[in-house]
């Protein structure tokens, strides 16, 4: 009892913070170029200046950071262990930063959890305990209301309950808990005072469905479900806000000013479908604009019918994404729409270009990444082991749940056979191919027996699952390909033979002109190796048109460059197919 009485006397001596009109210390902080250090000055007098490091006497203080561009960031430095415990629970995304001795938090982060802090205060006022007396209550606008008693639970950094305020062991302990209630009360008073105008603008913009650039931060709370527009396709996608957005302002490049938001999405990297984080920028704009016109918008700003329609499209596209990109390593499809591909600008940076790509495509992320290792694929970048061809064993991707597929991308990566370009395709433009199974039957050849033999040979090579050990040459990895030389004058059906065979066998036809492989021996070797290895993976029919440009007889009368190119082509065709996992 004597020990409890001493604890009670100690708490009663700290009366300043229990005053409903207690003022928190405020400071201004700026960088002095002249002295090369941070300068600080106190802007509001405080009776607690001698006890700023006492978390009971001074639960928090406010510092305004003046930046070079005369912008101001308001920081709240926490002293009270009670407030730190509450904020760890309400702000899990910054819980680690609250583990320091005197953590500092952005005042805007507190605005985002204002409703949660009010709920915490209401918890402290429910029920009744002995020896607490009356405590002022905060209403929905942050003002004082009628009195009530205290009920509060302190939590550790993991959100586990440590102390139950409903059962105090002593009167002094209950008084200490009452002080913690005032800490939260004063923090809400600060928010009410500091964000008075912001709250009014926030409510008005929310009602009107509009937003200004400077108010974007107030709408994107962690865990909020939003609609984002894909930067590659412009299609609506589903995402969740990971952490509060931040303004990225650069005085030397104001045209690059933007508001950056971290979003939780899901993506496929040729190995597995997993959760990812992506940064989305909203470029600076003037005035107020409809929220739905921005690249990221909370779902609450859409009409219920409109949201339902968009989500139906997203869910359908998620199922199509799984079927085209994940169910099999590659997928031969028909596409209608535009192809997005990267091209280096004069400054060395990649720029996204678009071109119409109606026709047949092969959806294959891994082959695209191998053919274009420098492309910025973001979360879709395959692991380095797959890029190097290290076989981890074939594991079929289990189909994700419908909820997980809501977060799927709106594009897949692959190759357009009509444009002969790698790039990305809008998932919504993909369709199954309708093959003409009688195409080869309609081909007229002089010898019907030769026609059927050709079909049987090509079909056997394309349907073989494991090409190892079936070469005709004594040397390993030689003579394993199927090479057919079609010759004759123009218009006799050389190209048509390859086209009808591929159509009837449901295989992609990769037509390559001589100029596409390059005019130098080294360039020819690189391109030919890539084409043959990729075609082997796809079990495709490769049509090398105008091959006579490379297949002239090698004699001393021909220049060395032509001899080298002929040698490169013959040597690669001899050892075709090139091994690839």
TrEMBL record:
Keywords for this protein: Chloroplast, Plastid
Domain ATPase AAA-type core: 484-559
Cited Pfam families: AAA (PF00004), DUF7025 (PF22942)
Molecular functions (GO terms): ATP binding; ATP hydrolysis activity
UniProt-listed Gene3D superfamilies: P-loop containing nucleotide triphosphate hydrolases (3.40.50.300)
InterPro entries to which the protein is assigned, alphabetical: ATPase_AAA_core, DUF7025, P-loop_NTPase
Domain DUF7025: 205-301
Name of the molecule in the record: AAA+ ATPase domain-containing protein
Organism listed in the record: Adiantum capillus-veneris (Maidenhair fern)
Lineage: Eukaryota, Viridiplantae, Streptophyta, Embryophyta, Tracheophyta
């Amino acid at each position: 009892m004597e020990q409890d009485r001493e604890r009670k006397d100690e708490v009663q001596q700290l009366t300043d913070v229990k005053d409903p009109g207690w003022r928190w210390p405020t400071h201004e902080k700026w960088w002095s170029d002249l002295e090369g250090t941070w300068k600080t000055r106190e802007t509001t007098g405080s009776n607690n200046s001698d006890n700023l490091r006492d978390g009971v006497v001074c639960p928090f203080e406010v510092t305004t950071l003046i930046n070079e561009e005369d912008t101001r960031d308001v920081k709240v430095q926490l002293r009270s262990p009670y407030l730190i415990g509450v904020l760890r629970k309400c702000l899990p995304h910054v819980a680690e930063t609250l583990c320091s001795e005197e953590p500092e938090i952005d005042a805007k982060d507190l605005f985002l959890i204002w409703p949660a802090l009010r709920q915490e205060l209401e918890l402290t006022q429910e029920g009744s305990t002995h020896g607490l007396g009356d405590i002022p209550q905060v209403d929905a606008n942050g003002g004082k209301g009628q009195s009530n008693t205290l009920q509060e639970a302190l939590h550790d950094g993991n959100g586990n309950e440590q102390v139950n305020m409903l059962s105090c062991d002593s009167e002094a302990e209950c008084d200490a808990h009452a002080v913690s209630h005032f800490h939260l009360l004063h923090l809400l008073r600060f928010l009410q005072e500091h964000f008075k105008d912001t709250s009014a603008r926030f409510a008005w913009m929310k009602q009107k469905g509009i937003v200004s650039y400077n108010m974007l931060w107030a709408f994107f709370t962690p865990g909020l479900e939003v609609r984002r527009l894909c930067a590659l396709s412009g299609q609506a996608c589903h995402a969740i806000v990971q952490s509060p957005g931040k303004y990225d302002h650069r005085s030397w490049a104001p045209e690059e000013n933007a508001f950056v938001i971290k979003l939780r999405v899901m993506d496929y990297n040729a190995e597995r479908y997993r959760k990812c984080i992506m940064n989305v920028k909203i470029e600076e704009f003037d005035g107020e604009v409809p929220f739905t016109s921005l690249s990221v918008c909370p779902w609450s700003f859409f009409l219920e019918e409109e949201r339902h329609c968009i989500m139906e499209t997203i869910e359908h596209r998620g199922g199509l994404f799984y079927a085209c990109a994940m169910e099999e390593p590659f997928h031969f499809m028909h596409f209608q729409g535009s192809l997005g591909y990267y091209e280096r600008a004069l400054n060395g940076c990649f720029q996204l270009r678009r071109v119409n790509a109606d026709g047949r495509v092969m959806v294959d992320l891994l082959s695209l990444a191998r053919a274009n290792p420098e492309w910025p694929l973001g979360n879709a970048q395959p692991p380095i082991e797959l890029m190097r061809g290290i076989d981890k064993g074939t594991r079929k991707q289990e189909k994700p749940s419908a909820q997980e597929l809501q977060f799927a991308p709106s594009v897949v990566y692959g190759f357009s056979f009509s444009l002969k370009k790698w790039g990305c395709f809008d998932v919504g433009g993909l369709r199954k191919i309708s093959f003409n199974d009688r195409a080869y039957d309609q081909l007229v050849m002089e010898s019907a027996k030769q026609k059927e033999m050709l079909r049987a040979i090509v079909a056997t090579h394309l349907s073989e699952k494991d090409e190892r050990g079936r070469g005709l040459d004594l040397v390993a990895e030689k003579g394993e390909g199927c090479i057919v030389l079609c010759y004759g004058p123009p218009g006799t059906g050389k190209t048509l033979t390859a086209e009808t065979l591929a159509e009837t066998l449901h295989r992609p036809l990769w037509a390559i002109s001589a100029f596409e492989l390059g005019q130098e021996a080294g360039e020819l070797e690189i391109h030919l190796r890539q084409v043959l290895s990729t075609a082997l993976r796809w079990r495709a029919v490769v049509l090398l048109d105008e091959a006579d440009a490379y297949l002239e007889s090698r004699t001393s009368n021909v220049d060395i460059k032509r001899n080298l190119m002929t040698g490169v082509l013959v040597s690669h065709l001899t050892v075709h197919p090139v091994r690839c996992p």
